[in-house]
Design a protein that fits this description.
Aspartate Aminotransferase, domain 1; 3-stranded antiparallel β-sheet; single chain; Rossmann fold; 406 residues; 2 domains; 13 helices; 7-stranded mixed β-sheet; 12 strands; alpha/beta
Length: 406
């Protein structure tokens, strides 16, 4: 093609408006709870004031904010927004203080549920009759959005409000893995005795919290349509919105369930680097030995590649680390919690002085049990440690089934 033809082709391309509009998103296979609400359930508000607990993940399948969609319907009286950890826009790092403020786009007050209080107070709920919860979870007990939901349910009960959960998929499916939280280790990253990998949607969890754990709020779950319990995220046809700074895509939800549990033992998990949660290692660890031993375990769905990295942010910034990269080639069969135990046991065996497991620390809080640390100290195998949780995990699996909606 000569220069004249090239220019003519380019001119025709721009004249056609080919760049004026983005191609439409592919149609999702699942109708989200917020879409069912926007289509029909909103009418049952009957003029009552609504407050929305949401963040950047609270969007429709067309990636439109639930707040914007509600504001476009003049018949819905939206009174306030409530922001969880990481903030309404998702721009706060893990554990960072989230302030309350007035949203410049909507003019609505945005009340922080990760600031001075984590429960909506009476003043925050002034004029609100129904709380709507629309946040994407990742399937881990330790992810704080479900604790925010539980606290909001408690406040709804206390102040005589209704709470509606606009249900969303569990991106990692219905697989259940222990340990089940022991009451002595209750915290904001684990309020109730559920399994670490709970296998439930937020709507199902809300029913479990409300009924079995006795919150007793006026609860309504707005169910999804087209969702099947066998689905993991890519089966839904939905687009992933970064749920927190270190979970930029749905693929990260699987290793997060695993290596998100090892950092409190002193093992870096890749946070502060380019692929958070896809790494496991520390200073001076032999990556080839770690990879070989872990691959010899034939763990389902994952391969371990010897790796070296240097975090660009956080506690480990600038340190030269070595260990393994997790290549999760089959997320459906990947046993995240089992793999986390295998990593810690293997690190202990090849470099026992490098991990901090001697005393009760945040490791117990993160796992919701002292049995992992005790097993590591005692020299127990991964099988022995995991087998200690079998009975309680099975009991939770049966309990979970009672609240399944799909």
């Amino acid at each position: 093609m000569n220069r004249r033809d090239l220019l003519a082709t380019a001119g025709a391309f721009f004249a056609s408006g080919a760049l004026a509009h983005a191609a439409p998103l592919p149609r999702a296979k699942v109708t989200l709870g917020d879409e069912v609400f926007l289509r029909e359930t909103w009418r049952e508000l009957k003029g009552r004031g609504a407050g929305v607990i949401t963040n950047q993940t609270g969007v429709t399948s067309r990636l439109v904010s639930i707040v914007d969609e509600i504001r476009a319907n003049s018949a819905i009286r939206i009174k306030a927004i409530y922001a969880p950890e990481h903030g309404f826009r998702g721009d706060r790092t893990a554990g960072a203080y989230v302030p309350s403020y007035t949203d410049s786009s909507s003019g609505l007050p945005v009340y922080s549920l990760y600031g001075p209080t984590r429960h909506p107070s009476a003043s925050m709920l002034d004029g609100v009759d129904v709380l709507l919860f629309d946040i994407q979870d990742v399937g881990s007990r330790a992810y704080t959005f479900i604790s925010t939901m539980a606290y909001a349910m408690q406040s709804a009960k206390q102040y005589g409000k209704e709470i509606w959960i606009l249900d969303r998929p569990n991106p990692v499916g219905t697989t259940v893995e222990g340990p089940v939280l022991e009451p002595a280790f209750e915290s904001f990253i684990g309020l109730y005795p559920i399994a670490m990998r709970h296998g439930m949607t937020v709507g199902e969890l809300a029913k479990l919290f409300n009924d079995h754990f006795g919150i007793g709020a006026q609860l309504r779950v707005v169910r999804m349509e087209g969702y099947d319990a066998s689905m993991i995220w890519p089966d839904t046809g939905l687009q992933w919105v970064q749920s927190s700074p270190n979970i930029p895509d749905w693929e990260t939800t699987f290793p997060y369930l695993c290596t998100g549990l090892i950092d409190s033992a002193g093992v870096n998990n890749g946070t502060g680097f380019t692929k958070p949660f896809f790494y496991a290692g520390m200073i001076g660890l032999d990556p080839n030995s770690l990879a070989r031993r872990l691959n010899d375990r034939n763990l389902p769905g994952v391969y371990f590649r010897p790796a070296a990295w240097s975090p660009i942010a956080g506690f480990w910034q600038g340190k030269e680390l070595s260990g393994v990269e997790l290549v999760v080639y089959d997320p459906r069969s990947f046993l995240a919690i089992r793999t986390a135990v295998e990593i810690l046991v293997t690190v202990r065996d090849i470099s026992p002085r490098t991990i901090d497991i001697k005393k009760a620390t945040s490791l117990d809080r993160d796992w919701g049990t002292a049995s992992l640390r005790e097993g590591l100290v005692a020299g127990a195998s991964a099988n022995d440690i995991v087998n200690r949780w079998t009975a309680s995990t099975q009991d939770f699996r049966l309990l979970r089934n009672r609240y399944a909606l799909y």
